[in-house]
Design brief:
By secondary structure, this protein is an alpha/beta fold. It is built from 20 helices and 16 strands.
Amino acid sequence: MTESVQVSDMYKVWAELMGTLVKKWPVVPAESTVQNALFKELSTAYQQATEQMVKENPVVMIDRQMEFWKQQMSIFQGTMLKMAGGDAPPVVHPEKGDRRFDAPEWSAFPLFDYLRQSYLLLNQTVNEAIQDIPGMDLKTQQRLRFFTRQWLSAVSPGNFPLTNPEVLKLTAESGGENLVRGMRQLVEDMENSADSLNIRMTDRSAFRLGENIAATPGRVVFRNALMELIQYSPSTDTVHKQPLLIVPPWINKFYVLDLRPDNSFVRFARDMGHTVFMISWVNPGRDSRHWGIETYMQEGLLQALQEVQRITGESQTNVVGYCAGGILLAITLGWLAARNETAGIHTATHLATLFDFTDAGDIGVFIDDLIVRELEHELDRQGVLDGRMLAVTFSILRENDLYWNYYIQNYLKGERPIPFDMLYWNTDSTNVPAAVHKFFLRQLYIENRLRQPAGLHLLGRDIDLSQVHTPAFMVATRQDHIARWNGCYAGTQQYGGEVEFVLGESGHVAGILNPPGGRYGHFRHYELPGTAEQWFSEAQYFQESWWMAWNRWIQPFAGEQVPARIPVAGADAAPGQYVRVTASQALLSA
């Protein structure tokens, strides 16, 4: 394409691209019963909220409206003054961390400054109004705030080419090439999407599994229909006697803990002298619909433990579980305790693991009995939850950073996203079998059974975490919007054995991937009071990665030094085969 595109040529390209979109995607997609149920509940909630405001405190509502128009008039007057060559300070400012309007063009041109400030004022006014609605339960308020935020984020002036000064400037300078490149990328992304648009967040071509990501050397030493077991090659001449098994979540690929050498927890543990094993879950197709939590326990964690013991000859294994993998570890420990067994689990490390789902974070706004019933019906029809849909869901939990930011960059500016290992992993989706997803939705998120003594009943046993006496180390992160740290802290009160709890900084992924010398420290307290709030008020801050705190804790349980264990020659090299299967490939192969 030439550097400057003629208007007629640009229209021709746009017509071709739009034709491709229409052919591949229906203009009006079929309505989802889940979406209908959510829309119905939201409509009712907004109606009740409005009635409540008018009934209980109409004066406050009128005062807020008057204040809004007063500030709106101040913004307008300031704009007129700027257009006349004067200067006026902004009436409203973005919230801390909101970088959508950082570009100088937004404040340099009075019209766009007016759009920016008016939009920010609307955000502030609406959110304050929802916050102040009297008599509203916490769940409904969280849901209204979340979906109102989604709507407000979607209508930001930065999301439209005619109201984004950066895009207008770029379009004028490039002769419209940015929009043509953006449409081409949109077509590519829609071809790789499910029912919702998966916006690429990184240059996927920059990464190659086993070469510059998930590249810690090792071998696949066992494989069944559910998982591959990887044993990593040692980097020390001797290793600790007790091996280390890592159980990642099955809603993402395992290599979140093995991205780059400098942020790989796998490499860190290996370099600290552990014989490290990792479960790599298969990317399931529709024929796996019957795989439940029992499947992941018996054919996943317990089978992996048997193989680790067979390979190393050791009867005791230290186990690390991350997110859903940590929940699986807790459930397995409870089930084993009911049988007066341990299966050789020497210690348990829980990373970002929810034990109490009372406050399920932002994901909880999608979950109540009506929505879950519709989700269950949908899962029964489909057999799996499409991992691409799940990826979009997690993206819109931080919509301005992980969705609209890339929408503007990719489609309006026509830029290719830069390589970023964490976002490459984030978009490498996995499907979730219907049975295990229904278990999480109903028995954990809705009924919160994990925190109840004998609340869960699996394979003939009642699960009571107070019967678990395995030493445990629990890590949560302070800004985690998926596994709220107070729900993770609840595990300290449920386990019956010794527990150490550490609270890291940052969020669900960045806070866990925090190697020594990294940006974030952690909070620690040597007592475990009854509430998370009291724990935090008494905790001490350390400018040190939680990895180092874990390393000190695990040492007494790691055992004496023995000769390094070399993975079996001839087996498939890490990261194995299962990790290479995409969500769409898994669905096509079913």
